[in-house]
Specification:
One of its GO terms (molecular function) is transmembrane transporter activity. The chain contains seven helices and ten strands. By secondary structure, the chain is α/β, with parallel strands linked by helices. The strands form two sheets. It has a six-stranded mixed sheet with strand order 6-7-8-3-9-10, sandwiched between helices. A four-stranded antiparallel sheet has the order 2-1-4-5, covered by helices on one side. Helix 3 crosses helix 4 and helix 4 crosses helix 5 (155-167). The structure holds adenosine-5'-triphosphate.
Length: 233
Amino acid sequence: MPLLQIENLSKTFHLHQFEGKRITACTDINLTLKHGAFIGITGKSGAGKSTILKCIYRTYIPTEGTMVYESDCFGRIDLAKATEREIVDIRLKEIGYVSQFLKLLPRITALEAVEQELVAAGSHVAAASAEARAILSHFGLSPSLWDTYPNTFSGGEKLRLNLARAMVKRPKFLLLDEPTASLDNGSKEAVRDMIMDLKKQGTSMIGIFHDLDFMEKVVDEEYNMRDGRLMGV
Ligand SMILES: Nc1ncnc2c1ncn2[C@@H]1O[C@H](COP(=O)(O)OP(=O)(O)OP(=O)(O)O)[C@@H](O)[C@H]1O
């Protein structure tokens, strides 16, 4: 059994404020992710790449299709039909999501944001603090920023904090939406090291990339998206 089997996935948005206009972001997506594998997806802006990741993470509820996932918590489960409670549990313990956009509660410092992830997953506070510091250093987030609020961080700083938050829990399955966007070469190296490290430990991943050189060095399989459809390359 693969880790994730997506069949006939489609997502259509209904824009009620525009007289019911519809936008079909992705259509008839079929994808198999084996345990421990890394799939890379490229494609033009607006092709529907992020929509696939957001359906898997259940930020969006798919319009059609199934996404059967081998969960540690629940066994085989269709993420398209899982309850909100099941999704919350799976996000907490199994699936990480990284993007450049950061949604944090106000007045939570960068260090606390990483510590919280670990504590929510069951770590002790002292251990969480040490691990959080180590991973923020790994991703080159300046220690002078650790005790400040991330809402003023640059795009690259937000991304590095997001990477630290998602990767520190060593999730079983990681979704990466442009994990190297707006990073300098040193930070890209840190992301690559962490990806290779997670791969060695068996983490399965799906990532969206505009940086094809970076992608080709880390993924096992590549797909290209065009007009909402997924094609092999
Ligand atoms: N919440 C939403 N409501 C309405 N339309 C949406 C929504 N999310 C995405 N879309 C539309 O779906 C299409 C695909 O968007 P998506 O973000 O998946 O593309 P993408 O390939 O990830 O693009 P990019 O590389 O620019 O991030 C776009 O036309 C977008 O406007």
